[in-house]
Amino acid sequence: MELAKNNSQICILGIESSCDDTAAAVWYNNKICSNVISSQKIHEEFGGVVPEYASRKHQQNVVPTVLASLAQAGILKEEIDAIACTQGPGLMGSLLVGHSFTKGLALSLNVPYVNVDHVDAHVLAHFIDGDIPKLPFLCLLVSGGHTQIVRVNEDYILDILGKTIDDAAGEAFDKAGKMLNLKYPAGPIIDKLSEDADPLKFKFNTPNVAALDFSFSGLKTSILYFLQKATRQQKDFIEENKKDLCASIQYTIVSYLISKLAQAMDETGIREIGIAGGVAANSALRSELTSLGERKGAVVYIPKFEYCTDNAAMIAFAGKIKIEQQKYGTLSDVCFTRK
User: Fold this and answer.
1) By CB atoms within 10 Å of each CB, which of 68, 75, 234, 245 scores lowest?
2) What does CATH list as the number for 7-124+310-324?
3) How many other C-beta atoms lie within 10 A of the C-beta of residue 233?
4) In angstroms, rounded to a whole number, what is the distance separating the alpha carbons of residues 12 and 26?
5) Superfamily holding 133-307
6) What is the per-residue pLDDT across 106-120, written as a single tens digit (0 to 9) for each?
């Protein structure tokens, strides 16, 4: 089914369920009218997301979250012209809940739906509102599951220039936090503890990976071995140096990310740059990106906090683009867990 209505007037419901957050948003009259997120805080008790529990909570949350989003936007479900949902990557059980719900709702309303790549949507969040980047645009995507350098070309065609060959930067933050006995998710806690601490007090190795690719498994090992040796010599080493350890780990990760983005700028000549993904909320990364822009004479774009974490506004907007490109979903579409 295709959409015949003028694209500038369509009402799109976006649904996101790739991990543990159930989210719904409405795009109408060329703007986001609502962006509702239902979070599952209980995973903090387990030190990470429990996939089976997450999928069951999505089943409970998806209907009230969608209804809340429609109510916030002042839209009736009969006014929905199309639905966009996350197809992947993510947790299979969680994706299945959102994807299956979308298909059923689209059939009941007799409207088309489109599948959205979760990672692409993070990058495209830069084009929702506020200062819109000029194309081509370089985006450093940093999240718990992905780390990429993406070039956005004309017609919103995305080209991955570099990606992690093993673990993601967000995972490195969380695993390092676990070594420091911090709660999950550790990234925001490390960011907070790094304030007024010495980022150069401790040194950690960063990998030398070819081209624009990343690697974080070696860095995690470097941190682990350092802490094991230090605590053998001084039992309370971590507690006495926790702030400086956080600052040093954050400095190492952020410097590594920014160096790769700087390399991409030199190779492409692009001077429109930004960040996306959950780690884009990190204050040090935002600060270093701004400094990079000043050094390179680039225009820097930093997304709103609500567009950094998993959200449905980015899904609704990415869905708008796919509708304009007439890339509709079908009942035979399946979810995918890796990009």
Assistant:
1) 234
2) 3.30.420.40
3) 7
4) 6
5) ATPase, nucleotide binding domain (3.30.420.40)
6) 999 999 999 999 999
Number of H helices, E strands in the chain: 10, 10
Confidence of residue 5 (pLDDT cuts 50, 70, 90): low
Residue 208 to residue 263: CA distance in whole angstroms: 13
Fold match flag (7-124+310-324 vs 133-307) = yes
* 198: enclosing H helix or E strand: none
CA distance 152 to 62: 31
pLDDT of 187 reads 95
DSSP 92-160: HHHHHHHHHHHHHHHHHHT--EEEEEHHHHHHHGGGSSSSPPPSSEEEEEE-SS-EEEEEE-GGG-EEE
Residues 6+ apart with CB under 8 A from 119: 89, 141, 143, 146, 148, 339
Mean pLDDT of 259-267: 98
Amino acid at the residue 69: S
CB 137 within 8 A of CB 118: no
Cα–Cα distance, 35 to 152 (Å, whole number): 24
Q: Which residues lie across from 115 on neighbouring strands?
A: 85
What pLDDT does 139 receive? 98
CB 247 within 8 A of CB 203: no
* CA separation for the pair 314, 152 (Å, rounded): 15
Contact assessment for residue 284 and residue 251, using Cβ atoms and an 8 Å cutoff: yes
pLDDT in tens, 169-214: 999 999 999 999 999 899 999 999 999 999 999 999 988 898 999 9
Closest to 185 (Cα-Cα) out of 285, 327, 39? 39
Task: Flag whether the pTM goes above 0.85.
Answer: yes
